[in-house]
Design a protein that fits this description.
homotetramer; 336 residues; alpha+beta; 10-stranded mixed β-sheet; globular
Chain lengths: 336, 336, 336, 336
């Protein structure tokens, strides 16, 4: 571990993709591709590369067959090839284990750097990406949720304040929070000009709470639900449709056959101005998690996906170090 | 009471309006007019006449100030003036108390007949109605939920089978049911060519469960919720937004300041064919009440509006005579 | 031909289906099924039976391969089997040639009566219809325009006033007109409780102007256009998307590979009340045909489908007997 | 004028606001505020400051009463206060006249630099901006088109290639073009992560073609049209609703009472990746300007707003130096 001030972080452009371990790839394909309508960019035995209809790089999600459900890495795109060296230096100084991957190690992705970050997640940085066919105006091909692109990673961490400070050191801006005078319960942080690339939910972690995907209109969110009801697969709908107070997103959360949580949402806002102001929600405002005041289903706070270290082993989960939002917020009872 | 076969019932065109007693008319006006966007057709001290933007007759709802919240009558339009005599004869034969009201007794409504029906509700029949200005294409005036017109009355009755048989004798068609081998838990019945003009929910009754209003698109339903969240009045949103399995309606239920329940929905279907088939939902299908499988909030089954007799006195409430849907349906627990 | 007053007309429930002759069934199937998303109820060599997702009877459209594009009949459903005899008597008295067809002559349709009506169209009446699977809640199957059901026939006639009087004698109600002090340029008439089952456009006739199909929301209309653009088949989009002043329908008109015109629309209104008022548009109001004031493309007024007589021969086309709306209306120039 | 390589340009964040001269402020207010629903941030005699519902800085448009309709400046926000000096240096070196404005010269805007740019437009750069109240979640206040924020300036220039090169020197990325082997007919360029902050239409210039405003959903675009039809002000709708091939935007163009052109659109895409690819449309593709293949109304190519120099005098208009897209594109005739 180095000493002195942290070096400049890698210049992160955006959250780009995640790799999820699924226990039955055929069934995962049914859910992600046939039902939700993700585009298959590439496939190989035991692995699928998926993207949304607006995505112009190779993939937003990798589904890899394995013994236990998990999230093996969260990948960020960086602005220049030199940012990879910057990433190694940055994480070295933090005392984090890193690894360099050659181009092509992941199909569609150039040389990459991975690190076990201070929060316990395996994060990846890459610059080069294979282009993908432009499908935004192939309305004839759209199916399911018609997701446009990946938008963000939501992670469960035992200490939201630490997560916030770490991502601030990576150059992320803060768009919204849930807090009270004592505690930061949740935070939304961004590099690209949307509400977030990463968000933190307080709880036993490190775990992946969900992957968030942007769709263009509310009717796409509703269609996702309608299709699941049609197939009598409505039990995959965990929460929503509804609108978040935080971010203004109109959302639904679905769970894939391995329990990985997927948010399909629409309607957040531009955050690119240099003095973009933070929106702070009080933990007692029942609208913060659901603008319509509905109680959040307990599984949404409690359940999340195990994450893997650089060697592919599950990370141990620490209990929360802070009071949980779900125990203090107005979610636990009806206001009426 | 007469004997022999029932006479022909009055030829009912559709559910037309309801009168609700509200305890604070200013606050009711705020909710119905300012928030939900109902059109004020006429007002007088202590009373408001409201309609939707497509409605071409005088009103869909009367809000009358009074001491206790209640529903004083449910009014149906009939095809000819002669149907009023038919109504008197029909209810006389049933042994039900009736009353004739002269034209103008209710502003905008011609001569009317009222009856205390066998289910305990005060129902009204009228033929003549004052025309109302055509506002459908006054998009500049639309606000709130942009409801188009009243669609149906949903009533709570202790014995759904009896309610079904009574409305069948009135010439109503059956569109959908919730049932199992033993019990009819709920039924939807129509005169106009939609899924229903009246529906029955099993429970302590007679009570009014809700008034249903049609809006043209899902975004109108969502806007209703968004406005209530904006005003921090989200506690008025009781249930939804969501889609019903029954009727396919995309719905939200809101409660006015007196607790009167209002459904704003869109997307049901045409039922005008002579052999329109019945859709029967099994009470164990979690999609019947919410196509997305979500648990119905208990208040939705338990709470409803007191109804008044011909003299304006509250009707006594009988406990249910049947097993309640909410105690046998899959609503009480998550499927996942 | 009989004498004396006309007998009671058959009790028509609604416009039910049309048969179109297409010159290349494979290409027609591509357009109607693959692109527009109609459901195939049944197929046989040289013929396809199609319906919308809400339709509960066998078909809304028959596509039959033939040498020249044409519309061979427009079919109405009647309320009782006895209405078939009523139809024979009615058209006999009018001096119109009729034919009786046994059940099964058209798959999915019971016994039928056809007539060469006074306007020169072959119309059919039937009561019995085979039920079709309920697909409204199979959102997983929906594609294309997601049309729900057939709504209306729009026909070109040389004398709109005569067409109006004939359909009035059949018991149709009048919902809207385009007129001036001298001339009735167009009229919309209904049996079911919507704006129309049949409408008349003045011009050389008899010809079929278009078949109108209802979809539930505006985004379905837009999706129809987006798909055609995606496939570089945008030349099939003749007019729209836009909103009609008349009927308030948000519409698009597309032309199939044989030039048959199809309207996909949403958002008209209920017309079931006994005193439903007529909405009369002045021919000089540029909003009557396009609520946004846009000029109607000339082909929309000029082109239409040849219709066949009872023997399958093309009906001769008479030039209009009246001044054409397109020559007097404000459509020919911009208001600005 | 300096020599040698150009200095680094100011670091532009986004297009931020424009000032338009209107001849009747009361009537302009009616159109922009009452009809289109823009938020009034501030007003003073002879001037209005307007913004969209998502905008978090003081204004997106200034409407100033004056003798002749014009656009007096197009303003860009820059990343740091130091970028103002950078702007002066940059334009000095280009030989362009500049002016420094103290903070508060424009309400809500800090110190600014203006320049008469090489294309003949008066552009402004500012860093400091007064915050504005967050209204995104005040759905109760929304009216009209519900525009969220300004998105872009579209300008008419006699030489699109030169405009492209100039904006490239300012650090703008290129998202889409209309071109053929010989000519660049139109180009879309961005700083923020959307399709454009500025776009060029070939024609007599310098003139302002339109201001583009983002709305969240297609129904907001349609509502804009519906309101204008409702008010019998449909002649303000110049073109659309429709979808652009370029940018995928679903659009409508309206003209304010002085003829200033306003685009309300939804649905473009993210352009923030370092290697974002250019989408090049051939000028012969009828979908480039209208994805549905409709002919572009001639006024849309021909008419535009005069621009003013630093002293407030109209800039002389040079005829186009290139073949115009409207004379070579497929817009002039129907494909069918």
């Amino acid at each position: 571990m180095g000493t002195g001030p942290l070096p400049s972080p890698p210049d992160i452009v955006r959250s780009a993709y995640a790799e999820l371990i699924v226990t039955d790839l055929a069934r995962a394909r049914w859910f992600w591709v046939d039902v939700l309508g993700f585009v298959v960019s590439e496939s190989a035995p035991g692995v699928l590369y998926l993207r949304g209809y607006d995505e112009l790089t190779h993939h937003n999600v990798i589904l890899t067959e394995g013994a236990e459900p998990a999230a093996s890495r969260l990948a960020f795109r960086v602005r220049t090839p030199g940012d990879l060296d910057q990433a190694v230096e940055f994480y070295d100084r933090l005392g984090c284990r890193t690894a360099r991957l050659p181009a092509g190690n992941t199909p569609g992705i150039g040389a990459a750097v991975r690190a076990e970050d201070p929060l316990g997640f395996t994060v990846e940085f890459f610059h080069d990406a294979a282009p993908a066919g432009r499908l935004q105006q192939r309305y004839d091909l759209r199916r399911g949720a018609e997701v446009a692109r990946i938008d963000h990673f939501n992670i469960v961490v035992p200490d939201v304040q630490s997560a916030y400070e770490y991502y601030r050191s990576l150059g992320f801006g803060l768009s919204e929070t849930i807090e009270d005078a004592q505690t930061l319960y949740a935070a939304w942080m961004y590099r690209k000009q949307t509400v977030h690339d990463v968000a933190f939910t307080g709880g036993a972690g490190p775990r992946l709470h969900h992957l968030g995907f942007f769709a263009h209109e509310t009717h796409h969110v509703l269609r996702t639900c309608d299709i699941l009801g049609s197939l009598h697969e409505e039990s995959h709908i965990e929460r929503g449709p509804g609108r978040h107070g935080v971010s203004n997103a109109f959302y639904v959360y679905v769970r894939d056959p391995d329990g990985h949580r997927i948010e399909v949402y629409t309607s957040d806002y531009y955050t690119g101005d240099p003095d973009h102001p933070v929106l702070r929600w009080d933990v007692s405002d029942p609208r913060r998690r659901d603008f319509y005041g509905h109680v959040v289903i307990p599984s949404w706070y409690a359940e999340a996906t195990t994450v893997l270290d650089l060697d592919g082993n599950p990370r141990p989960i620490a209990e929360q170090h802070q009071i949980l939002e779900s125990s203090v917020g107005a979610d636990g009872f009806r206001v009426r």
